[in-house]
């Protein structure tokens, strides 16, 4: 079983959403490298656990219109904990100490999420990286 810590670096691109506005960056871009570096720092010592959340596509899309979000895209599709996905989406809030990764599969943000406990850490590294990218 592959955990998301091994899968995220295999992403083909990443999208950043800021209050609904989307910017996408290829895996060979400096922005992708900065986001991946922040992801690795944020997840040092973290644990993948059974999900606390379930996504409902319509509600997730509505939530994505506000705040900062990051979405990693994969090709081919990946699996973790027996859950297939072609993208993983997360809301980014510096103070959060865990992350629900919302799976996109066949065009829908529908079904069980993948949860990552940040083991006492928080999302500040990723939030800072997004702020740096948005201010460039």
List keywords for this structure.
single chain, 136 residues, alpha+beta, two-stranded antiparallel sheet
Break the fold down into its secondary structure elements and pairings:
Blueprint: H1 4-7, E1 13-18, E2 21-26, H2 30-42, E3 47-49, E4 54-55, H3 57-63, E5 68-80, E6 83-92, E7 98-104, E8 111-112, E9 114-117, H4 124-134
Antiparallel strand pairs: 1-2, 1-5, 3-9, 4-8, 5-6, 6-7, 7-9
Provide an overview of this structure.
The protein is of the alpha+beta class and 136 residues long. The chain is 26% helix and 39% strand. The chain has four helices and nine strands, in the order αββαββαβββββα. The protein has helices at residues 4-7, 30-42, 57-63, 124-134; strands at 13-18, 21-26, 47-49, 54-55, 68-80, 83-92, 98-104, 111-112, 114-117. A seven-stranded antiparallel sheet has the order 2-1-5-6-7-9-3. Helix 2 packs antiparallel against helix 4 (124-134). The radius of gyration is 14 Å and the shape is globular. The N and C termini lie far apart (38 Å). The mean pLDDT is 95.
